[in-house]
Q: What sequence folds into this?
């Protein structure tokens, strides 16, 4: 069902498109008229997202942390659709461990996907956008954890804070090319990434107590904000982070006690 023609004629490349927030973003941008390149490292998931959208979507398989993969993916999408007007970098992974227990492998895995993956993806996308000319937009998905520390989330918080600052540097450097860069910071969002946490009653309650809106976000809540930022309605918005969190970043982040009860983000 078409919601609007706000993105008619635009081509959008979305990473992390096989699940949760990335999948909802693909759906929403398509519903507003965009053609979609649905990128994920999970081939089945990328295909499922593209198939659910139909003829206006195309699955792309790539690892966002791989320079070779992302250069190839961006070239393939540009060859398939002619250009890339919108890029949304939503691929991410979580990990939960106290600092003293965090292995270098866990730290590196989170950094590779959540921060290096955004750098690698954005660089390939920006090079293409500069070469093609004309307005374009990159939206990076960070988190409330970019500004709100969470016990047990050192790698994740550090990576997301990095995404926030990287995006602002990109906005500065790319403005003269007509490329806007914005960040969306979701709060707790009901996706497979946090399924274990939401299934744990004490952890869920601890989080809900700290969300003024009284519920986790739906992936569609995040997708609506991304669609706004990707559209001409946000033509004068760049270098900003939009938190979509039901007010949670005004509150305290839930304490370690809830995570000891078996929660993991
Ligand atoms: N769910 C939340 O509560 C929440 C809150 C704040 C921010 N976020 C962020 O939103 C984004 C989407 O999260 P989600 O909740 O939809 O998670 P999800 O696990 O449902 O989906 C993540 C998708 O990213 C893909 N992916 C992971 N590593 C990849 C890689 N190296 N290359 C390509 N694809 C890869 C996975 O295959 C999966 O399809 C992430 O960046 C996450 O950190 C999520």
A:
């Amino acid at each position: 069902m078409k919601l609007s023609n706000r993105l008619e004629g635009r081509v959008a490349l979305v990473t992390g498109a096989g699940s949760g927030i990335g999948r909802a973003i693909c759906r929403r941008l398509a519903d507003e008229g965009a053609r979609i390149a649905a990128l994920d490292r999970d081939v089945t998931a990328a295909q499922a997202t593209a198939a659910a959208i139909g003829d206006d979507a195309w699955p792309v398989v790539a690892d966002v942390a791989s320079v070779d993969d992302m250069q190839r993916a961006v070239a393939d999408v540009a060859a398939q659709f002619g250009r890339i007007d919108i890029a949304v970098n939503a691929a991410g992974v979580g990990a939960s461990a106290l600092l003293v227990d965090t292995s270098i492998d866990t730290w590196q895995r989170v950094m590779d996907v959540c921060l290096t993956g955004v750098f690698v993806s954005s660089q390939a996308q920006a090079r293409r956008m500069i070469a093609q000319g004309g307005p374009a937009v990159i939206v990076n998905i960070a988190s409330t954890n970019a500004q709100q520390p969470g016990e047990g989330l050192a790698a994740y918080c550090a990576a997301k804070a990095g995404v926030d600052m990287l995006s602002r540097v990109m906005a500065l450097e790319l403005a003269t090319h007509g490329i806007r860069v914005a960040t969306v910071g979701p709060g707790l969002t009901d996706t497979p990434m946090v399924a274990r946490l939401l299934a744990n009653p004490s952890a869920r309650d601890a989080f809900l107590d700290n969300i003024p809106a009284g519920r986790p976000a739906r992936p569609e809540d995040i997708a609506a904000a991304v669609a706004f930022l990707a559209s001409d309605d946000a033509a004068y918005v760049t270098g900003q982070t939009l938190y979509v969190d039901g007010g949670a970043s005004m509150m305290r982040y839930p304490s370690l006690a809830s995570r000891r009860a078996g929660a993991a983000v």
Observations:
- Residues 104-132 form the longest helix (29 residues).
